[in-house]
Design goal:
- The protein has a three-stranded antiparallel β-sheet with strand order 2-1-3, with no helix packed on it.
- The termini are far apart.
- It folds into two domains: 30 residues; 59 residues, no CATH class.
- It is an alpha+beta fold and 96 residues long.
- The longest helix has 26 residues.
Length: 96
């Protein structure tokens, strides 16, 4: 292939990729949940949403171990009980 052919092929590929990417967000956005639940026992170390249920810390991202009963994350209502080890601790309405 010549240099001009390579440039043309790259330009066409870029245009096709751009068209695909611009259509993706409209198809990939799920519906907003009507409520969230505080799901304990499923947070990974350093990935909890807020303070521990046992009061050992008050901030997000401070879980020391995976799947601690005292660490939690918010998930859409109805999701927590589908996750192995997940226990619903509280529920809150979604912002509108």
């Amino acid at each position: 292939m010549t240099k001009q052919t390579n440039i043309k092929a790259a330009a066409i590929s870029s245009i096709l990729a751009l068209g695909t990417l611009s259509a993706a967000p409209a198809m990939a956005v799920p519906e907003q949940p009507s409520a969230w639940e505080k799901c304990a026992g499923v947070a990974k170390a350093g990935k909890n949403d807020c303070g521990a249920l046992d009061g050992s810390h008050n901030c997000a991202g401070q879980a020391k171990v995976d799947n601690s009963d005292h660490e939690w994350v918010y998930v859409p209502k109805g999701t927590c009980e589908k996750i192995t080890g997940g226990v619903v601790k509280a529920e809150k309405p979604a912002k509108k």
